[in-house]
Amino acid sequence: MTSLLHRPRRLRRSAALRSLVREVHLTRDDFVLPLFVCAGSSVRREVSSMPGVYNLSVDEVTKEASAAFDMGVRGVILFGLPETKDELATGAYVEDGVVQKAIRSIRDSVPEMIIIADTCLCEYTSHGHCGVVRDDEVLNDESLELIARTALSQAEAGADIVAPSAMMDGQVSAIRETLDASGFENTAIMAYAVKYASGFYGPFREAADSAPAFGDRRAYQMDPPNAREAMREAELDYSEGADILMVKPATVYLDILKMVRDRFDVPLAAYHVSGEYALIKAAAQKGWIDERRVMMETLTSIKRAGADIILTYFARDAIKALKSDEL
Questions:
Q1: pLDDT digits (tens, 9 = 90+) for 158-202
Q2: I need a surface site. Which of 14, 128, 152, 316 has the fewest CB within 10 A?
Q3: How distant, in Å, are the alpha carbons of 24, 38, 158 from that of 123?
Q4: Are the beta carbons of 30 and 73 closer than 8 angstroms?
Q5: What is the pLDDT of residues 94-151, one digit of tens each?
Q6: Catalytic pick from 85, 101, 248, 281?
Q7: CATH number of the domain at 26-215+226-326, please?
Q8: Which alpha helices (H) appear in the chain, and where do they start and end?
Q9: Which residues, at least 6 apart from 137, have a Cβ–Cβ distance to it below 8 Å?
Q10: Which residues of 33-50 are buried (b: 16+ CB within 10 A; e: fewer)?
Q11: In angstroms, rounded to a whole number, what is the distance separating the alpha carbons of residues 95 and 32?
Q12: Rounded Cα–Cα distance for residues 194 and 273 (Å)
């Protein structure tokens, strides 16, 4: 028999050995759970394209956040579905907006929960775009004031982190200046620094009722083939004061995630988006894949590529799986 000096299989022979030499470990602290807040009371409406995900009124989202915290989830990100919409996204920055109410309610119920507020206008505009529109064009500089006003209202409500996602040039700087001038210098910014114009957002647009009424978002979100441009976007947000950088989507942009990780020494987030979640759910419902195994393999790939924070609708299921593995 041939004598082999190196036999990598020696350390794969049992679960204990594999765990001993494992290079990447998922933990409960890696995950942030997205939640959708809507108007009304006692509302719990499942999103048809995202099994297990719901539109929740403030009272219900508070229960959901509390239950998630008890399970081990330590952070949530909130998206709003206002009762009415207008061209200037008024519902995004009013004091009694659905997200602002939810922030206060969750803070009262679960003081230790990390509350992140998605800072964008698309869910609140009648046209569904992420900024001010004139003559069917999304205006960058005119949108910055409303985005910054939204971030300030979220900070005033008690958000730990605001997360600008509109991909407007200069939005991080506008938010940082507004927050600092208003005494919220300790409110962190998690910038959607590299956000691609992706086809994987479809289920989210159902959940958030945020599909554009005309055109699409390719004029301001990134073109999927571009990688060097992603570094420029990340550099701009970093230089403007972003505390955390994000890549979105996650799994089909793992190369970009790795590039950002190698270049920037700040916390890095990745958003495992609605379409990525829905694909796994749909295939599992058909019996084509093992949902738990594919979920954990997918989330591990995101962390292996360099993410410190993973925003995922699987947050609770992943923590359950981790606890099960510990038994």
A1: 999 999 999 999 999 999 999 999 999 999 999 999 999 999 998
A2: 14
A3: 36, 11, 20
A4: no
A5: 999 999 999 999 999 999 999 999 999 998 998 878 888 888 888 899 999 999 999 9
A6: 248
A7: 3.20.20.70
A8: 15-20, 58-71, 98-109, 140-157, 171-181, 202-208, 228-239, 254-263, 274-285, 291-305, 315-326
A9: none
A10: bbbbbbbeeebeeebebb
A11: 25
A12: 13
CB-based contact 237:214 (threshold 8 Å): no
DSSP track, 26-51: --GGGEEEEEEEESSSS-EEE-TTST
Find the helix packing angle between 254-263 and 291-305, rounded to 10°: 30
Contact residues for 197 (Cβ-Cβ < 8 A; gap 6+): 216, 217, 218, 221, 222, 223, 224
Alpha helices in 158-199 (DSSP H): 171-181
For residue 248, indicate whether it is catalytic: yes
Locate the domains of the chain by residue range: 26-215+226-326
Three-state secondary-structure class, residue 160? coil
Annotated catalytic residue, options 195, 281, 320, 323:
195
281 labelled catalytic: no
